[in-house]
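Q: Got a minute? One more chain.
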Amino acid sequence: MNELSSIQKLTKFFVSEKIFSSMETESRAWKVKCNNCGHERSIWEMGGIRWKAYGEKALYRRCPNCGERSLLKIYKKTAAG
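A: Always. Here it is, folded:
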């Protein structure tokens, strides 16, 4: 996704380029993974921002890949894994 979402555009307007770049980098490290099919994408690709966050969580939502409702795990992917 090359175009910014509404929330990303709004945030970019209010913060410095350095902070926005940091937000994008960190948001790309946060992944959302489907329990059913294993489809994975970043929070940034979904149009969101997750910055200076910690901990994992799960949301019960419909997967955009398989179309099934399941737990979507949100976690930070590190260089080691």
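A: The CA atoms of residues 32 and 59 lie 9 Å apart.
Q: Perfect, thanks.
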